[in-house]
Task: structure prediction
Amino acid sequence: MDRVLTEISFSIHGEDGHQRDIELQRINSHHNFTQQEHHFGETIWVTRKGAIKATRESWAMIPGSMGTRSYIVVGKENAMSFHSALMAPAGAIRGRKRGACSAWTT
Result:
């Protein structure tokens, strides 16, 4: 994204250095990672595989495919899910028959 902003800066202003004027908000949606967090009075390691952190301050993007919409979302801070939101389990669905997928998607 930094390279894109640099190119836009050159296109609009003819020089580098205007990226902060161009960028309104950056959304990082890492969905495979491990980090230490504080939950239920303890510091623990949380591993999110196919999930994103979903706090009210954590903006995320759920990307669509060609012809479908993408969504910008913000978390609900559900403590029981360790403030996580599941991204579509696409890998699990691809290997199953369409009828068996309804349990994953409904």
In short: The longest strand covers residues 32-39.
